[in-house]
Each structure stands twice: as C-alpha cells, then as structure tokens.
Amino acid sequence: MPRSIKKGPFIEDKLFNKIRVAQESRSNKVIKTWSRRSTVIPEMVGLTLAVHNGKKFIPVFIAEDMVGHKLGEFSPTRTFYGHAGDKKTKLKK
C-alpha cells in the first residue's frame, strides 16, 4: 500500500539536507547514502547518489523517469548467477 498523499513522499532529513547543499553549490560530488527507503524527488534529478546495497555503494545517476521510485530499487542487493538447469543444458551441446 502506498504512502498517503497528505503526508507526501518520505525522504531522510539528512539526505535531503545533503541534496539541498549540492543543488545550491551546483556540486558534481557523489552523495553517499544508506537510506534505500527514501523516495526519489524532483530535486534529485541530475545528481549522482551512491546507494548502499549492504556490501558496497552503487553509484546511481538520477534521471527524470526515476521520480516517485525508491532509491533501493536501483541498487540490487542480490547477485543472480543464473539457474542451475541452464548450466547443465549448455554442457550437453
């Protein structure tokens, strides 16, 4: 269930302050964040955020299409190596 429109999108206060400072100074610095639950807002467009995936920081350039999504969606936490069945069939050929 989505968040109430009355409340507005959730964004961590510390992250929002970093974004405001970067916008005012027009800085191209990568902003590190652990807040995967924060929603992408229009003020973030054009910035690069390093989103933590539990092991390392994944750089994410924020585009206009990402507005409204969560930061965690762009930093995968699991590595997919393929299905075991696929490897067996490739060896037979």
What does this protein structure show overall?
This protein has 93 residues and is α+β, with helices and mostly antiparallel strands. 24% of the residues lie in helices and 14% in strands. The protein is built from two helices and three strands; from the N terminus they run αβββα. The chain has helices at 13-25, 84-92, and strands at 31-33, 48-52, 57-61. The protein has a three-stranded mixed beta sheet with strand order 1-2-3, with helices on one face. Strand 2 and strand 3 form a beta hairpin. The longest helix is centred in the first third of the chain and has 13 residues, at 13-25. The radius of gyration is 17 Å and the shape is elongated. The mean pLDDT is 90.
Main attributes of the structure:
93 residues, alpha+beta, three-stranded mixed β-sheet, 24% helix, elongated
Elements, N to C (H/E) = HEEEH
Which strand order does the major sheet show? 1-2-3
Helical segment count: 2
Radius of gyration: 17 Å
Q: What's the overall geometry?
A: elongated
- Portion in strands: 5-15%
Low-pLDDT parts are none
* Helical fraction: 10-25%
Average pLDDT number? 90
N- and C-termini, Cα separation: 47 Å
Strand count, sense and barrel status of the largest sheet are: 3 strands, mixed
Structural class: alpha+beta
Quantity of strands, as a count: 3
Summarize the topology:
Blueprint (H helix, E strand, L loop, with lengths): L12 H13 L5 E3 L14 E5 L4 E5 L22 H9 L1
Parallel strand pairs: 1-2
Antiparallel strand pairs: 2-3
